[in-house]
Amino acid sequence: MVNDIDKLLAMPGFSNAVGAGMPFGLDYNYDTKNFNNQFATFKNLITLPNLGMLKGPMSNSDLDFIKNSVANLNPSGDEALFIANIREIQDKYKAVLQKRADAQASQQPVVSKAVLDDLL
């Protein structure tokens, strides 16, 4: 999931798909459509009920933050705000991964790798 955000932001269609007046501006093309499809897949993945399975290494407020942040991501709004919001989500996920690694190091029970991999 962390890498998915980097890939989304680096996609050729990003600049045409994100920003005021998008996604159906003058430059709407295959790359823009591809970004929109990948973004929709990303939103669906991260808002799945399985996100609740991260509850062990993640607080309820972190889970709520991610769910609400993803639901409020608006590619047709301000581009800088979109980037800031998606980076915030990425930072939360990085923190979850670090908590998971710390818990494994201390032998505390954590979310199974399979469940986490399914979400990422």
Structure summary:
It is built from six helices and no strands. With 120 residues, the chain is mainly alpha-helical.
List the helices and strands and how they pair.
Blueprint: H1 2-10, H2 14-17, H3 30-46, H4 60-72, H5 79-105, H6 113-119
Helix pairs in contact: 4-5
Describe the structure.
- By secondary structure, the chain is mainly α.
- The chain has one domain (2-119).
- The chain is built from six helices and no strands.
- Helix 4 packs antiparallel against helix 5.
- It is elongated.
- 18% of the residues are buried.
- The mean pLDDT is 76.
**N- to C-terminal separation?**
4 Å
Q: Could you say which structural class the secondary elements and strand pairing correspond to?
A: mainly alpha
Outline: elongated
Tally of extended strands? 0
Tags for this model:
120 residues, 6 helices, mainly alpha, elongated
